[in-house]
Amino acid sequence: METSLQGLKVLVVEDEYLVAADMERMLNALGAVVVGPVAHLERAQELARHESIGGAILDVDLRGEAVYPLADELLARGVPVILATGLDVAVVPESYGQLPRLQKPFDDLTLQSAAERVFTRA
Amino acid sequence: MDDDHRPEAGQSQPGSLGEAKEARINAEAIVRTIGQPLLVLNGGLIVRIANPAFHKLFQTTPETTLGRPIYQLGNAQWDIPELRRLLDGVLTQDAKIDDYQIEHRFEQIGERIMLLNASRVDRPGGRTPLVLLAISDVTDLERSRFELEGRKEFAEKIVDATREALLVLGWDLRVQKANEAFYRSFEVDPAETEGRMVYELGNGQWDIPRLRELLEKVLPQEQTFDDYEVEHDFERIGQRSMLLNARRIDHLQLILLAIRDITEQKKAAARQTVLMSELQHRVNNILANVRSISMQTRQHSSTIEEFTEAFDGRIGALARTQDLLTRRPEGDISLRAIAARELEARGAREGEDFSLSGPQLAFPPSAAQAIGLTFHELGTNAAKYGALAGPPGRIELSWRIDRAAAGDVIIRWRETGVQLHGPPRKKGFGSRIIEQSLPYMLGGSSKMIFHSDGLECVIQFPLPGREARD
Q1: What is the enclosing helix (H) or strand (E) of B40?
Q2: ∠ CA(A36), CA(B450), CA(B348), 5° rounding?
Q3: What phi and psi, each to the nearest 5 degrees, are found at residue A39?
């Protein structure tokens, strides 16, 4: 499938294997190149520093560890970020409330439209 | 006229006796005018004077009353043994009857309660004394007093029986009464409560600015206040949330203050909210997993039948782990329970088809979910091509903590009694789950070794600590 995401490197950080595998499948289908997926913050930060990334989909809570430090790093570098969350809206801190968000569970089309909107703005 | 009257008539002659006559006329005028029923009896207890108030009360007339013995009046309705005894005492011993209460059924006016006052009036000249008998009808007074006492008792019993803590305060804000519920809830006793200012109670623990405002500002203007919530840290019972209701009882100059402890109620509501959001989170997670399983299974299936069988099996595995989680909502679930359920679900029997051995190990929900799914996929493969396809196949499932490897968990799944000819040609989603899911989530590794007598799968990962929330 030819999309505007063709060849875009997307970092996927998600601690649930099944969900990560599915996001990988979706992004591959859209022609994006998945960086990861990874389940742990430290490993994700390491990956992010060594790859040129065009966008990131970040699960907000990684086994009790908040993903926000990584989000800060990426945003500082100008990498667009989408938060993925299974929690209700209130749990996301106010300062990250403006970031685009994917509410789990989400389907292929929801991910596609969010990714196209957020990652190809420039 | 009786003979007793005659000498008195002599006093009515003009001359030195004029003064006495005037006094007598005055006395009779007083007796007539006075509002209280009054009888003047002579020494033989014959009615000499009955005043209008008496006639009015007992519905009699002078004709049926004067000159007759008191005990014969109105069909002998005054012939009361108690009265006989009393009047005898007055006459013979100059006794005084002072507010003596009698209850008696009178023919005309029914059941009455009377207060009797009587005294002897001695007369000069050896004449027989008179008896002055004043009668007060206190029936209504007594009845209302009785009723009032009944109401008071009623009110007191309500206060005592109420499970809500109640304080009865005077307008000076001193405690007049507190009920059992109050003493129990706030762990105080009557001695340190009654008569004290409400603010002084229990070491000043009721000296709450909000309560002061309510009692001193709101109540004087509003008569009542309802459901004011007050948060306060009490010396003996700690932080509490209370609902306060008050009523001003103006007639009695009292304030009724009802205190409802809603601390537990509020805690329960907060717990409920947390549980609901936890549940919502879990449901979303499960749905995300189901979606993933369905999409991945579809990708690796050639026919709808193949898809249905694999998808159904995986949903079954999710459901079984969920079931274990529901039974232990607060705790982790044991590796043994997950393994036994997964293998038994496909009809395998412990001891015959498989053996389980290892220390007690328990895992938080998402790890448990991944372990369940991994065993499910291993079981599916074993049923298709391995140890569960038929005798003499057997699975030996064991686990241990490897001290040498920083306390990693090592799970070993070893099939025997199978004839294998190398690894399968095509790797499906099931194999990916077996090889990747636990290492991905928990870190670690997984390897599959295809022995000639069956598969060996070894999965190694650090023992998970905190549970992921998402």
Answers
A1: strand B38-41
A2: 95
A3: -105, -15
Interchain contact, A86 vs B370, CB within 8 Å: no
Interface contact B288-A18, CB threshold 8 A: yes
* pTM for the structure as a whole: 0.62
Task: Please give the Cα distance from A94 to A5 (Å, whole number).
Answer: 29
Q: What pLDDT is stored for residue B252 in this prediction?
A: 80
Instruction: Answer whether A63 sits within 8 Å of B464, measured CB to CB.
Output: yes
Calculate how close chain B gets to A3, using CA atoms only, in Å: 20
Q: Say what the alpha-carbon torsion angle B251, B257, B258, B262 is, to the nearest 10 degrees.
A: 160
Rounded to whole angstroms, the Cα distance separating B87 from B119 reads 9
Q: What is the pLDDT of residues A1-21, one digit of tens each?
A: 556 788 889 999 998 898 899
Q: Which of A16, A21, A103 sits opposite B366 (nearest CB)?
A: A16
CA–CA distance, B128 with B347 (Å, rounded to integer): 122
Peptide bond into B392 cis (omega under 30): yes
CB B66 within 8 A of CB B60: no
The pair of three-digit structure tokens given for residue B75, joined into one six-digit string: 């069909």
Question: Which residues of chain B fall short of a pLDDT of 50?
Answer: 1-13, 466-470
Pairwise CB contact (< 8 Å): B437 & A60? no
Instruction: With CA atoms as reference, report the closest residue to B341 among B289, B269, B326, B277.
Output: B326
Under a CB-based contact definition with an 8 Å cutoff, are residues B125 and B7 in contact? yes
ipTM: 0.86
Closest by CA to B297, choosing from B388, B432, B423, B426, is B432
**Residue B16: burial class (beta carbons within 10 Å; 0-12, 13-18, 19+):** exposed
Tell which B residues from 248 to 307 touch A, by Cβ distance under 8 Å. Answer: 277, 280-281, 284-285, 287-293, 295-296, 299
Cβ of A105 within 8 Å of Cβ of B284? The answer is yes
Q: How far apart are CA B146 and CA B163, in angstroms?
A: 28
Q: Please tell me the predicted confidence (pLDDT) of residue A37.
A: 92
